[in-house]
Amino acid sequence: MAKKTKTAFVCNECGADYSKWAGQCGACGAWNSLSEVRLGPAHTDSRSANFTDAQAGYAGAAGQGKVQKLSEIDLSELPRIPTNASELDRVLGGGLVPGSVVLIGGHPGAGKSTVLLQTLCHLSQTLPALYVTGEESLQQVAMRAKRLGLPADHLQMLSETNVEQICLTAGEVKPKVMVVDSIQVMHMAEVQSAPGSVAQVRESAAYLTRFAKQTGTALILVGHVTKDGSLAGPKVLEHIIDCSIMLEGTHDSRFRTLRAHKNRFGAVNELGVFAMTEQGLKEVSNPSAIFLQRAEEIAAGSVVTSVWEGTRPLLVELQALVDDSSLGNPRRVAVGLDQNRLNMLLAVLHRHGGVLVGDQDVFINVVGGVKVMETSADLTLLMAVVSSFRNRALDRDLMIFGEVGLAGEIRPVPSGQERLREAAKHGFRKAIVPAANRLKADIEGMQVIPVKSLLETLDALGMH
């Protein structure tokens, strides 16, 4: 009699599994996220795989089963492998860590494969590196390397989608750095589901991660994203890996931003900037200069602010357009900013600043495609709105930052001194900042105006 196939229902969001289908996942609360998968034999090989004895002695991030006192743990700095790209090293926290697993995601055409091919071609000149491609043929990768003028004489290539075979080959080659492009096309023979499914992605990532930890190989996985920009596959994928970074950028822009969303070996929200050229992705060492390419005549509604990205300040330009609305419900559009926060700040502007834009359409844009995630741009946003509403341009050499509270008070922001020094370095001579962020030591050629409330700011600009 044929043996009945066992099935389970797995959540696409968090990876939790259930014996029966349900409308809502009990672990993460997502609705209609359970999909049926067929269960194969027990994956004893993937759970207890013991790779080559010569490599199994790695005592890195993987636990060794020995109990130690916290005070006895070696605090020596983790070894790093420089990638020959300072912006990528910055996002990673100083370079690749042996035995770590990095997941890089991004929209199709963003440049994921290009930046990794560039990195491995340069790394292969000094240490063994392996590039595993499951989406492209070896000829396609070779043609791209030739077009970009990359040194391709030492990089080892493998075209394979079977995870067990990849690890077997890598165990023989013994690379220090390995790229798998991409995790969504990888599969394991014992998992009875199609490549890209929740079960396949989860088991393949777990198998590759175990290989990296046991052999000390720095592993980089390429991941696809969904239409809303989040990583495709189970949410547990982001918990398995050590570092998750996203390559962002629009097709009509030549600039790409690399942002760390999770990093066990460095700062979160660190930002690296690259420019897409005919020779591939080139790092931009001074991104503030790129995002400050302003017109000769500064229009009303344009203000510069300083946002903190990871470990450095970044100067960006905010633009606002306020216009009479022909609709009963005026529009509020924010590109690069949180629209809910825009609505809240406009209410504060009316209540504590006496400026009513309730019957106006308000459009906000962050120049250059940068996404501003912090609250230091609150005051800049409101001053850009008032500037456009009054049709009065602000000074070209003026920079503003500060958080605005619901009572109209101006709250301090972290690293205010470093933001001011970055602005002075780029030629700004006047700054409006929270009173608590006033200068401890004067910066030559810069006038700093401390403010405590929204009304004080409007008075300083002569717009009250």
From TrEMBL:
Region Lon-protease-like: list its residue ranges.
361-464
Query: Mind telling me which Gene3D superfamilies this protein's record contains?
Result: 3.30.230.10, P-loop containing nucleotide triphosphate hydrolases
Segments carrying motif RadA KNRFG motif: 262-266
Would the keyword ATP-binding turn up in this protein's UniProt record? yes
Give every RecA family profile domain span.
77-225
- Where does this protein hold ATP? G106, H107, P108, G109, A110, G111, K112, S113
Keywords in UniProt for this one? ATP-binding, DNA damage, DNA repair, DNA-binding, Hydrolase, Metal-binding, Nucleotide-binding, Stress response, Zinc, Zinc-finger
Q: Determine if DNA damage is one of this entry's keywords.
A: yes
Enumerate the InterPro entries for this protein: AAA+_ATPase, DNA_repair_RadA, P-loop_NTPase, RecA_ATP-bd, Ribosomal_Su5_D2-typ_SF, Ribsml_uS5_D2-typ_fold_subgr, Rubredoxin_2
Q: What is known of its domains?
A: The middle region has homology to RecA with ATPase motifs including the RadA KNRFG motif, while the C-terminus is homologous to Lon protease.
What's this protein's function? DNA-dependent ATPase involved in processing of recombination intermediates, plays a role in repairing DNA breaks. Stimulates the branch migration of RecA-mediated strand transfer reactions, allowing the 3' invading strand to extend heteroduplex DNA faster. Binds ssDNA in the presence of ADP but not other nucleotides, has ATPase activity that is stimulated by ssDNA and various branched DNA structures, but inhibited by SSB. Does not have RecA's homology-searching function. Plays a role in repairing double-strand DNA breaks, probably involving stabilizing or processing branched DNA or blocked replication forks.
- Identify the PANTHER family for this entry: DNA REPAIR PROTEIN RADA, DNA REPAIR PROTEIN RADA-LIKE PROTEIN
- Membership in a protein family: Belongs to the RecA family. RadA subfamily.
Q: Read off the HAMAP family from this record.
A: RadA_bact
What is the protein name given in its UniProt record? DNA repair protein RadA
Native species of this protein? Answer: Microbulbifer salipaludis
